[in-house]
Amino acid sequence: MNRFHVHLNVADLASSIRFYTELFAAPPSVVKGDYAKWMLDDPRVNFAISNTGRAPGVDHLGIQVERAEDLSDLGRRLDAAGGEVVPEPGAICCYANSDKMWTHDPQGTRWETFHTHGEATSYYAADTSCSTGAASCSPGTSAPAPAVRASTAACCAPASGCC
Cis bond leading into 43, ω under 30°? Predict the structure, then answer.
Protein backbone atom coordinates (compact mmCIF):
# COMPACT_ATOMS: atom_id res chain seq x y z
CA MET A 1 0.00 0.00 0.00
CA ASN A 2 1.32 3.44 -0.91
CA ARG A 3 1.80 6.16 1.68
CA PHE A 4 1.15 9.88 1.20
CA HIS A 5 4.22 12.04 1.89
CA VAL A 6 4.40 15.63 3.12
CA HIS A 7 7.66 17.48 3.77
CA LEU A 8 7.61 20.82 5.57
CA ASN A 9 10.45 23.23 6.16
CA VAL A 10 10.25 24.59 9.72
CA ALA A 11 11.92 27.50 11.50
CA ASP A 12 12.15 25.84 14.93
CA LEU A 13 12.61 22.08 14.84
CA ALA A 14 12.16 21.46 18.59
CA SER A 15 8.86 23.35 18.85
CA SER A 16 7.62 21.74 15.64
CA ILE A 17 8.47 18.27 16.97
CA ARG A 18 6.48 19.05 20.14
CA PHE A 19 3.52 20.34 18.11
CA TYR A 20 3.34 17.40 15.69
CA THR A 21 3.96 14.84 18.45
CA GLU A 22 0.84 16.16 20.19
CA LEU A 23 -1.15 16.44 16.96
CA PHE A 24 -0.34 12.89 15.88
CA ALA A 25 -0.39 11.48 19.45
CA ALA A 26 2.91 9.76 18.65
CA PRO A 27 6.59 10.62 18.79
CA PRO A 28 8.56 10.80 15.54
CA SER A 29 10.06 7.55 14.28
CA VAL A 30 13.23 9.40 13.23
CA VAL A 31 14.81 12.40 14.96
CA LYS A 32 18.06 14.03 13.84
CA GLY A 33 19.54 17.44 14.55
CA ASP A 34 17.87 18.96 11.47
CA TYR A 35 15.09 16.51 10.67
CA ALA A 36 12.18 14.50 12.10
CA LYS A 37 9.79 12.03 10.51
CA TRP A 38 6.55 10.32 11.52
CA MET A 39 5.49 7.13 9.71
CA LEU A 40 1.82 7.13 10.62
CA ASP A 41 -0.83 4.54 9.86
CA ASP A 42 -3.81 6.74 10.78
CA PRO A 43 -3.72 8.66 8.55
CA ARG A 44 -1.28 6.63 6.43
CA VAL A 45 1.35 9.30 5.85
CA ASN A 46 5.10 9.81 5.86
CA PHE A 47 5.22 13.26 7.46
CA ALA A 48 8.66 14.89 7.58
CA ILE A 49 9.93 18.23 8.83
CA SER A 50 13.37 19.75 8.48
CA ASN A 51 15.28 22.84 9.44
CA THR A 52 17.96 22.99 6.77
CA GLY A 53 17.94 26.67 5.88
CA ARG A 54 15.04 26.89 3.43
CA ALA A 55 12.02 29.13 3.97
CA PRO A 56 9.37 27.62 6.29
CA GLY A 57 6.36 26.09 4.56
CA VAL A 58 5.47 23.18 2.32
CA ASP A 59 8.59 21.92 0.58
CA HIS A 60 6.92 19.19 -1.49
CA LEU A 61 4.27 16.49 -1.53
CA GLY A 62 4.73 12.92 -2.58
CA ILE A 63 3.86 9.26 -2.65
CA GLN A 64 6.06 6.62 -1.05
CA VAL A 65 5.72 3.16 -2.56
CA GLU A 66 6.55 -0.16 -0.91
CA ARG A 67 8.07 -1.93 -3.94
CA ALA A 68 10.41 -0.88 -6.76
CA GLU A 69 7.93 -2.08 -9.39
CA ASP A 70 5.28 0.20 -7.84
CA LEU A 71 7.61 3.15 -8.49
CA SER A 72 7.83 2.19 -12.18
CA ASP A 73 4.04 2.01 -12.39
CA LEU A 74 3.70 5.40 -10.71
CA GLY A 75 6.29 6.84 -13.10
CA ARG A 76 4.18 5.75 -16.07
CA ARG A 77 1.14 7.44 -14.50
CA LEU A 78 3.11 10.64 -13.95
CA ASP A 79 4.29 10.56 -17.55
CA ALA A 80 0.70 10.11 -18.75
CA ALA A 81 -0.33 13.10 -16.61
CA GLY A 82 1.85 15.26 -18.85
CA GLY A 83 4.47 16.76 -16.58
CA GLU A 84 8.22 16.37 -16.99
CA VAL A 85 9.30 13.36 -14.92
CA VAL A 86 12.88 13.47 -13.68
CA PRO A 87 14.31 10.22 -12.29
CA GLU A 88 16.77 10.29 -9.40
CA PRO A 89 17.99 6.73 -8.80
CA GLY A 90 20.13 5.99 -5.76
CA ALA A 91 19.37 9.25 -3.97
CA ILE A 92 20.66 9.88 -0.47
CA CYS A 93 18.19 12.23 1.12
CA CYS A 94 16.50 12.72 4.46
CA TYR A 95 18.66 10.02 6.11
CA ALA A 96 17.45 7.41 3.59
CA ASN A 97 18.57 5.68 0.41
CA SER A 98 15.83 5.88 -2.21
CA ASP A 99 15.05 5.74 -5.89
CA LYS A 100 12.95 8.77 -6.83
CA MET A 101 11.09 10.58 -9.55
CA TRP A 102 10.29 14.29 -9.38
CA THR A 103 7.69 16.33 -11.23
CA HIS A 104 5.57 19.49 -10.88
CA ASP A 105 1.80 19.67 -11.04
CA PRO A 106 0.14 22.34 -13.25
CA GLN A 107 0.34 24.88 -10.38
CA GLY A 108 4.06 24.28 -9.87
CA THR A 109 3.77 22.18 -6.70
CA ARG A 110 6.72 19.81 -6.48
CA TRP A 111 5.88 16.09 -6.24
CA GLU A 112 8.30 13.37 -5.20
CA THR A 113 7.55 9.71 -5.79
CA PHE A 114 9.97 7.31 -4.17
CA HIS A 115 10.89 3.83 -3.01
CA THR A 116 13.13 3.74 0.07
CA HIS A 117 15.47 0.77 0.31
CA GLY A 118 17.72 1.65 3.23
CA GLU A 119 18.93 4.16 5.76
CA ALA A 120 21.67 6.75 5.30
CA THR A 121 23.91 8.39 7.87
CA SER A 122 23.46 11.93 6.53
CA TYR A 123 20.65 14.18 5.36
CA TYR A 124 22.38 14.76 2.00
CA ALA A 125 24.67 12.63 -0.09
CA ALA A 126 28.38 12.81 0.67
CA ASP A 127 30.37 15.41 -1.20
CA THR A 128 31.56 13.10 -3.95
CA SER A 129 30.48 14.87 -7.13
CA CYS A 130 30.27 18.54 -6.28
CA SER A 131 32.78 19.39 -8.98
CA THR A 132 29.89 19.18 -11.46
CA GLY A 133 28.16 22.17 -9.90
CA ALA A 134 25.03 20.10 -9.41
CA ALA A 135 22.29 21.30 -7.08
CA SER A 136 22.40 18.00 -5.24
CA CYS A 137 25.12 15.43 -4.92
CA SER A 138 24.85 11.65 -4.94
CA PRO A 139 27.78 9.28 -4.62
CA GLY A 140 29.05 8.17 -8.00
CA THR A 141 26.91 10.67 -9.89
CA SER A 142 28.73 13.01 -12.20
CA ALA A 143 25.80 14.20 -14.30
CA PRO A 144 24.26 17.60 -13.61
CA ALA A 145 21.27 17.67 -11.30
CA PRO A 146 17.86 17.09 -12.93
CA ALA A 147 16.15 20.22 -14.21
CA VAL A 148 13.29 19.97 -11.72
CA ARG A 149 15.71 20.00 -8.82
CA ALA A 150 18.13 22.53 -10.26
CA SER A 151 15.38 25.07 -10.88
CA THR A 152 14.18 25.11 -7.27
CA ALA A 153 15.57 24.48 -3.81
CA ALA A 154 14.95 20.75 -3.73
CA CYS A 155 14.11 18.62 -0.71
CA CYS A 156 17.47 17.11 -0.44
CA ALA A 157 19.73 19.65 -2.05
CA PRO A 158 21.75 21.78 0.35
CA ALA A 159 20.51 25.34 0.54
CA SER A 160 23.98 26.54 -0.44
CA GLY A 161 23.83 24.68 -3.73
CA CYS A 162 26.07 21.69 -3.27
CA CYS A 163 26.99 19.43 -0.41
Answer: yes
Report whether CATH 3.10.180.10 matches the domain 1-124: yes
Distance CA 80, CA 69 (A): 17
Could you give the CA distance from residue 32 to residue 123 in angstroms, rounded to a whole number? 9
pTM (predicted TM-score): 0.70
Tell me the domain boundaries of the chain.
1-124
Residue spans of beta strands (DSSP E) within 11-158: 30-32, 35-41, 44-50, 57-65, 86-93, 96-104, 110-119
Residues 47/35, Cβ–Cβ less than 8 Å: no
Phi-psi region of 25 (alpha: psi -120 to 50; beta: other; left: phi over 0): left
DSSP 8-class letter at 163: -
Q: Using an 8 Å Cβ cutoff, are 145 and 134 in contact?
A: yes
Q: What is the pLDDT of residues 36-89, one digit of tens each?
A: 999 999 999 999 999 998 999 999 999 999 999 999 999 899 989 988 999 999
